[in-house]
Design a protein that fits this description.
Strand 5 and strand 6 form a beta hairpin. The termini are far apart. The chain has a two-stranded parallel ribbon with strand order 1-4. The radius of gyration is 15 Å and the shape is flat. The relative contact order is 0.13. It has 103 residues and is an alpha+beta fold. Helices cover 31% and strands 19% of the residues. The longest helix has 13 residues. It has one domain.
Length: 103
């Protein structure tokens, strides 16, 4: 069971960023997404394991994460850099005008 700021909470997060952009909400409090990632990293170092369903390139960047894609059958393990969400986010960050200007 998690200790510290996650004490009493289940270590399962399904789409933690869907409604809160770069924030995560657990029943009793709201925390910054980067703070959440730091907490997960520390808890993992202490032996915790997490299953997190997300499209967030930030959460997917967790060091040594095992990422599985449910986009096709069978479910497959994929590399961070091969994820469509990561590619689009990186491409947008490098050239926003390409996405914001009419063709």
């Amino acid at each position: 069971m998690p200790k510290g700021p996650l004490a009493g909470l289940s270590p399962l997060a399904s789409q933690p960023t869907t409604r809160f952009s770069h924030s995560v909400f657990f029943a009793r409090f709201r925390i910054d997404l980067f703070q959440f990632l730091r907490i997960v990293c520390k808890a993992a170092r202490d032996g915790a394991q997490f299953i997190i369903a997300t499209h967030s390139p930030i959460l997917l960047a967790y060091p040594s994460a095992r990422i599985f894609s449910f986009d096709a059958i069978p479910i497959a393990k994929v590399a961070y850099g091969d994820l469509e969400h990561v590619k689009v986010t990186r491409d947008f960050s490098n050239d926003p005008a390409k996405y914001l200007v009419d063709p």
